[in-house]
Every structure is written in C-alpha cells, then in structure tokens.
Structure prediction request, 594 residues.
Amino acid sequence: MATKLVQIEDDVEIKQRLEAERVRLRKIAGLDRPTHFHRPVERAFTAEERSKVTILFGGFTWKHEDLIRAVFQGCGYRCEKLPVPDVPAFQIGKEYGNNGQCNPTYFTVGNLVQYLQFLEKEGISRQDILNNYVFFTAGSCGPCRFGMYEAEYRFALKNAGFDGFRVLLFKDSDGIKAASGEPGLKFTIDFGFGMLNALLMGDVFNDLIYQIRPFETNKGETDRVFRETVDSLCDDLKNRDSFEIEQRAPDWAKPKFKSNKILRNTFNVFGKMHEHMWGKDILNALGSAREKMNAIEVDRTKVKPVAKITGEFWAQTTEGDGNFHMFEFLEREGAQVLVEPIATWVAYLLYQAKAHAKAKWPVNRPHRDPKWWELKKNLVNEMGLRKKMLGIGAGQVMWNYFYHRTARNLGGITHHLVNQKELAALAHPFYNQFARGGEGHLEVGKNVYYTVHHLCHMVLALKPFGCMPSSQSDGVQSAVVNKFKDMIFLPIETSGEGEVNAHSRVQMALGEAKVKAKTEFEQCLKMTGKSLDEIKEYIAEHPELKRPFYQVPHREGIAGTAAQFILHVSDRMDKSTKLWRRARVPDVAVPNAA
Ligand code: SF4
Prediction:
C-alpha cells in the first residue's frame, strides 16, 4: 500500500516538527540534560606512601630512563622504568583502548597495561598493584591526540580491570607545578636539577653512542663501555649527598643557619644549584665518563651515509617495535644515524612560547589602543611585552647553555642544538609556524635545514600511523622535495605491522644515500692528492686520531664523517711536511711533498 505524503506548506510547522524530532532524538541519546565532562577525582599519592609506592614511567631511550630513575631513587622514591613497548603491548593497547587513536597511544597505553598484567602474573594482587604503583607521564592540552593520552590511559586501565590505578601528570603547558601538586611527588631543587642533568646527559649519551658505534674498531665495545659509563653515573646520581648548608657551613655559622629559615633556604637553593651544575662531584663523574668513552678505538675512514632522523616525538625516540627497530636496522645496513635530542623539543616549546606571546600581544596587552599622548599606558604596554620576552629569552639562554655545557663536559663532539629561529624561517614558506600539534613546523624545517647545510645524506621521517600533524606535514613535504632536487627524503609510517615493507623502502633510499656518500668521499680524497693508504698510515702513527673525542673541524658543504676526517688528516699531514721542510737545510729536497 502506497504511503500518503502529507505536504506541509507552512514554514512555522516545519520548524516545530524539526524541533520536536530533535528533542526526541536527544532524549534517546541521553543528551536531554546538560552534562559536562569532569576529570575524574583521583586518589592522591601522599607523602606517607612514598616509601612503599613505586613510580612507573617510560617512553624515552634506555640512557635517559636509567638516569631519570637514578634521580628519582636519589630523591628517596621507589621507581621503575617500563620495558620498551613491543608489538604485544600495541595489541593490548588496541584491545583495551578507544578506536582510531594514533599508534604511540596504543604502544604506550598497552605497555602500561602489559606491565601491570605482568606484575599480577608475578603474584602481586590487583589491589596491591592499585595501592603500591603509580604511573608518571607527560600530558598536554592538545591539539593533537597527545591531549587525550591521560584519558586513554584511564580508559584502557579501567577496561583491563585496573580501574583506580593512579596516573600522575607532568603537563608541558604548566610544567612541574602539576606534579608538585601531588603531595607524594614533591618538587625540590635536588629533584629539579637532578632531572635536568639526567635529561641532558641522556641526550648527549644518545647522540654519542650513534656517533661512535658505527666507527668502532672492536665490535661491541661501544655498547659495553656506554653501559658501564651510564651505570656508574646512575650510581653517582643515586648516592650523592645532598647539599645542606647546616652541614657545610663552618662551625661558627651553623647556629645562624639553624635559627634563620630564610637565610638557610636561600643558601641551600644556591648551594644545591651550584653542586648539581658546577660541583666537584658531578664534574669528576663526567670527567671519568669522558675518559672511559674516549678509550674506545674508532676508525673514521669507514665511508657511511649519514641518515638524519626526524618525525614524530615518540616514533623518533623509541628504540623498539614502535619504529621497527629503525636505528639498529640502519646501522646494520652500514649507515650512521643522526638522532634528535629531546632538548630540541624543549627549545622548540620555548621558541614557540615567545613567538606566540609576541603575536598575541596586540590582543593580550593591558591597554587596548591607547592614544599616542597616553604615555603611561603606552609604557605599560611596551614594558609588559619586554618583560615577557625577557623571561622566556632567559629560559632559552639557560637551556642552550646547560645543554652545550653538558656536551662539552662529555667529550665536546655532540651535535649542537639547531637555531629555532632558522628552523622556523626555513619551514615557513611551506608550513606556518603557528600551526600547532605534534612536531609542528619542525619536520619540514629540519628536512630543509639538514639538506641545505649538507649535514646528512638522507632524511628519514618516522611518522606513526594515525598521526594527524605528521600527515599534514607529509602533504607539505612533496612541495619541499620538489624545490630541493638533491634531497633524499623518505617518510615512513610506523605501526604495529609492516616492518619488512618499511625496511625495504628504507633500504632503497639508503642505497641512493650510500652512492652520495661514496661519491663525496672519493671527491674529497682526490682533493687531498693522497692515497687512502697514505692517510691510513699517518693515522696509524698518530693514535690520538683513533680516539672518538678527537675534534675534527667541520667543513661546510660536506656531510660524511669519513670525508670530513680524511680532509682534516690530509691538512695535518701537509702541515707536518711544511714544518719538517722548514726544519731541514734549504737545499735538501723533500720526498713526496705536495
Ligand atoms: S603527534 Fe601524532 S602520534 Fe604523536 S600524539 Fe600527536 S597525533 Fe599522536
């Protein structure tokens, strides 16, 4: 039977019917009452629990994690690092997490659940796990899925039966304050400077290990020495005595510090700061680490393409299934990996904070549109901006200083932090620096920077499956590659599957990079006018050239370590020939003089 259509000609009736239908549907969906999301109120981690609760954390390289754990332990906390996330962890993350997340979410969330399940299998009851463990992680307000991590952890933990497990947040938007709000986890000068040192040392060790290992003469030596070095620095961080003015002051001054809290606290702040950054203990520890690493024998004449790693923060940092063990694979295939320090990310955040403050100042300034004669208002506006710029600028200077100082104390060959202003300027024609989320403009900026400055033979961007900002910058990279014709750029989408496919794509790009590195080396060798055997002979006679911390001056326009090295050795050989010539009687001919 045909349905009879009722024609409605009156607009008002259409609107009324629509409204009635909307009300009906909202009621069915449970949206008829205004509801707001409220962050769940969590059981606090209290100071009394400190001695029995273990803080779990993870997500960095083993060097960073070991040092961070040592700082936690040195400050009196029980602390354990989570294992490197693997494919089973990814699958657990998918099982218990929401649909449609980016894969770092699945890897990291699943990793936590997997570890708690492991504790349960070891015989610890679920209730004891809830009471005696907490998870410490970074959080953010977005705009990418990073802003959802906290909710994702809670959701997956609940689904896996660990409802009520505590997740402590350290937000990149409000720093350590968020964590210090938890009475069990207290921010102190020792904790803050200890963490700063751990992070910087972790970055420097990570950079060094990838610079030294490809050139080691004795296979396995770099890994062994770095393991020992990091372990001994961890012991130092764990067991170092905290600076207390009441103990260090001369006897006559001790009562003064005891009775005057303000005086005691002021001296303690500066004393602790000095002890952590310039103290004898830390400098001695770094000195002995430097000596151990410098004893590794290297042969820098091995020709290797330099592969610069960029991409999403987690995918370019993890050393496991999360990025298909990419660094290990690249080294096995004969490449030298140029990793990214976490310090670049902090430098980026500081730079962006400054740029945003400046761009938003016309809206945020205290007095809107003052007339030119309203001098006081104009002055207040001007000073307000300057104060803000000065504060962030001071943070930038200190961050750069501390990073490069750590690098100098650990051998001085670590790559410097790239100038953020230059990165933004290079990226800007392709990617607006105010487009936030993920690595923002950094992926594009680094690709251009490392190519135009000839600092690598290829750029490999590791991008997680489902990552929104990475997909955005990927679209832009095709315009970048079109502009810089000699650029070898390869974006690899990382996920829980597809390792073989990803490796074979990298192998192809690496093949091109190898040709580039070899050609560059041959041209440099030709420029020296010497044979490789002559250069090697000279190196054999000068053992300092086999030490990793021997400083090879950087020549513009050359990316390869071996090419840089032979040019430098050749210069040294020429110099010694000239000196030898000068020392001889003038009429004596110099054999093989260039
Ligand atoms: S940057 Fe990408 S992968 Fe990382 S949290 Fe954001 S959306 Fe996920």
In short: The first strand starts at residue 54 and ends at 57. The chain has a mean pLDDT of 89.
